[in-house]
Amino acid sequence: MDSPSQSNPGSSNVRPIEVDEILANLQADPGLRTRMTDYSPNIRDEIRRAYLQNGPCQPRSYKFPQTNQSGINRRFIVQWFDEYDWLEYSIAKDAAFCLHCYLFKLNFDQVGGDAFTGVGFNN
C-alpha cells in the first residue's frame, strides 16, 4: 500500500517526503546554505521556521582566525553574538552573516546585495 504522501501528493494535510528530507539536512553553516529563493515557494515558510527554531549559527568555542587588513591583525569577536542575536558566523567562509536577511531578503539588487546572505562580511 502506498504511503499517504505518495498516493495523494496534492493533499494539503500531507507533507511530501522530500520536504522532510530537506528539513532534516538543513545546513547550519551560513556560508554553505542553499539560497532561500532556490527553494520551492511552497516550502520556504517551513524552512524559515526550522532555521528560526534552530537559531543562528554561532560557533562560540571556535578559534577565529586572524587576517591582516591594512597592516592590522583582525578577527571576529565572539562577544558580538551577545550584542547581535541575529549575527551568524561561517567557519567555511570566515565571514559574518545575518540570519534574518538570509530568511527574508528576496531582492538581492537592493543595497547590500548578498553581503550578509551569500558572500558574507569579513571587513
Q: What is the number of E strands?
A: 4
Given helix and strand content, the structural type is alpha+beta
Describe the main β-sheet briefly: 2 strands, antiparallel
Distance between the termini: 57 Å
Mean of residue pLDDT values: 82
Identify the strand order in the major beta sheet.
1-2
Indicate the percent of residues in helices.
Answer: 25-40%
List low-confidence stretches. Answer: 1-14
Number of helices, counting only DSSP H or I runs of 4 residues or more = 6
Using the CA coordinates, give the radius of gyration: 18 Å
Order of helices and strands: HHHEEHEEHH
Overall 3D shape: elongated
Which labels suit this protein?
single chain, 123 residues, alpha+beta, two-stranded antiparallel sheet, two-stranded antiparallel ribbon, 11% strand, TTF-type domain-containing protein
